[in-house]
Amino acid sequence: QVQLVESGGGLVEAEAGGSLRLSCAGSGRNFSNYTMGWFRHTPGKERDFVAAIKWNGSTYYTDSVKGRFTVSRDNAKNTVYLQMNSLTPEDTAVYYCAAGRSIIMSTMTKGSAYDYWGQGTQVTVSS
What we know:
This protein is an all-beta fold and 127 residues long. It has strands at 3-7, 10-13, 20-27, 35-41, 48-53, 59-61, 69-74, 79-84, 93-100, 116-117, 121-126. Strands 2, 4, 5, 6, 9, 10 and 11 form a seven-stranded mixed beta sheet that branches. It has a four-stranded antiparallel beta sheet with strand order 1-3-8-7, with no helix packed on it. A hairpin with a 6-residue loop joins strand 4 (35-41) and strand 5. The termini are far apart.
């Protein structure tokens, strides 16, 4: 069993080149063995994959955030991070972290493949 708690969301201004760093603190055994994913959801839209990091540090991003977002993990702290730079209003969403035990390349972007989810943190980017 893994419990995940996100933090770090908030309100930023796009004109100021807004940045935020989200954190996802995990509890439970063998956290380092999980693939950790970040997803986001906007009302009226489907939940979208944002980024993921495997146990070995390999990272994956959706095209719209490449070059702006960076996912990282600190296994000693059971924490995964999402550094978000150059935020735009289109990045406004509730961001969720998720943990998956058996993620492969073909399922990396599918929320249904992940086993555990956090409660989400709101990110709002004003224009």
